[in-house]
Design goal:
Strand order of the largest sheet: 7-6-2-8-9-13-12-11-10
Strand content: 15-25%
Distance between the termini: 68 Å
Largest sheet: 9 strands, mixed
Helix content: 25-40%
Structural class: alpha+beta
Number of strands: 15
Radius of gyration: 25 Å
């Protein structure tokens, strides 16, 4: 009797399987595209760039690349994953055809980008309507977080430059609509910049905000219902003045640098003026207090601006800075929201940290590097990355429930999208049967049922 040695079973491999589908869970993304009307919208937008007698539709090609990126790809050639499964993803263009289209769109410059963004915004409006109470604007407000992302370049690419972190690459400025604690976030702006671009360049923040507002429903493109949040990079006179300008009247919550003037005002705040900071669950935040600064520290800033400072015991191992005081770490932000307690406003600003989660998801979804050489090509790639991230946000928002709605892209890929399946022909119907033993098959079928019940685009 032979004794089996090793921890894993020995399996015989043959390559003759038929009707077997890998990445079968990708049908969730395909159905999301269809229900959002994204396929027809982008196809119509990119129709001017379709050559006579072309076999493949430019809009379908762009969406195929976005689907490949959502499934884990990080270059144009990874669209081969979809090409291998035509029964699920339809006919997919060859690698040379994909590359030629990217070059064509890059040569078209702002025209092509504007067309894609318009179709993308149209689909977003429909998705938010379908999502109802799960949409990011369910409470009648929208929060947009702006933050810079360092993308390392491992080869010499156009506009790659040394960054402030002593790396080499690019420094895009991105904007995300915050879904709150119950979901992920949607990218609504990506401004490609050289690696040495300044973190606090007001003109770039204005441009990124304009791109983000164009993606929102029209009622949120001006007025107090839209909140723009940034770290201290957005705390410049020009950017804050632009946000508060008459006729725009956007709400803002922007980090501010602790200047010497602010530091001196903090030292003069009496103990009775400090209020305990709070956590998201309403409990007191241990070792943290907030206060509002007034007086000449607001001179030169727009009318209605409030300056709120927080002092907090530093975390173990953290080093104090010159701008800290009395052994406390100081941070400061400005807002134009009136009538709300400063502890509540400070909590709202602190939740901007969720943008770091969005950036981590973006790096895992095509933003680990910029795969193309020229800047114009990489601008198209950034739009594709945003489309992929939106699909990864829209699908959970429309189809998933409970804790799994907050799963990040890596977990969605490992547990849902990588599910194996098999096509079975019954009568005149082809049915995709998912693996029965897979622990998350029930989540996939339930999600597909929810998507199927949604109305088709008009």
């Amino acid at each position: 009797m032979k004794k089996r040695i090793g921890s894993y079973p020995r399996v015989r491999i043959e390559g003759g399987g038929r009707a077997v589908v890998s990445q079968a869970g990708g049908v969730l993304l395909v159905e999301t595209v269809r229900k959002a009307g994204l396929d027809t919208a982008i196809s119509a937008a990119l129709a001017p760039w379709r050559k006579a007698r072309a076999v493949h539709d430019p809009g379908k090609i762009v969406l195929d690349v976005a689907l490949a990126v959502a499934l884990g790809g990080d270059c144009l050639a990874d669209v081969a994953m979809l090409r291998a499964e035509p029964a699920v993803f339809g006919p997919v263009a060859s690698d040379p055809t994909v590359s030629r289209l990217i070059d064509t769109l890059a040569a078209a410059g702002p025209k092509a980008l504007t067309a894609v963004r318009a179709a993308w915004a149209e689909a977003r409006h429909r998705v938010w309507r379908l999502a109802g109470r799960e949409a990011p604007d369910a409470d009648g407000t929208v929060t947009v977080d702006l933050d810079g992302v360092l993308v390392i370049a491992h080869s010499d690419k156009e506009d790659a430059a040394p960054t402030w972190k002593r790396t080499y690459g690019h420094h895009p400025l991105m904007g995300f609509v915050d879904h709150g604690s119950g979901g992920t976030g949607e990218p609504v702006a990506a401004l490609l910049r050289p690696g040495n671009a300044g973190s606090n360049t007001a003109a770039d923040h204005i441009t990124a905000t304009q791109l983000a507002l164009a993606q929102l429903p029209e009622k949120y493109r001006r007025g107090r219902r839209t909140l723009i949040r940034t770290d201290s990079a957005g705390g410049t006179h020009d950017f804050v003045a632009w946000l508060a300008r008459r006729g725009r009247w956007l709400s803002y919550s922007v980090g501010m640098v602790i200047t010497e003037q602010v530091h001196q005002h903090v030292l003069k705040v009496p103990a009775s003026a400090w209020t305990a900071a709070v956590e998201a669950n309403g409990e007191i935040r241990d070792g943290a207090w907030v206060a509002e600064l007034t007086g000449d520290v607001l001179d030169g800033w727009p009318e209605g601006m409030r300056l709120i400072v927080r002092k907090e015991r530093p975390h173990p191992g953290a080093q104090l800075r010159l701008t800290d005081a009395d052994g406390m770490r100081l941070t400061c932000f400005a807002t134009n929201t009136p009538g709300r307690p400063i502890a509540e406003l400070e909590l709202r600003h602190r939740l901007r940290a969720r943008a770091e989660d969005r950036i981590r998801a973006a790096r895992a979804t095509g933003l680990r590097n910029l795969p193309l050489h020229r800047t114009a090509q990489n601008r198209i790639w950034l739009e594709i990355v945003q489309l992929a991230l939106d699909l990864l946000a829209w699908m959970p928002m429309l189809a998933l429930a409970g804790e799994i709605r907050r799963w990040e892209p890596r977990r969605l890929r490992l547990r849902l999208f990588s599910t194996a399946g098999q096509f079975v022909t019954t009568g005149r119907r082809r049915i995709l049967r998912l693996a029965r033993h897979w622990p998350w098959t029930g989540h996939i079928t339930a999600a597909l049922d929810r998507l199927t019940q949604l109305p088709d685009p008009g």
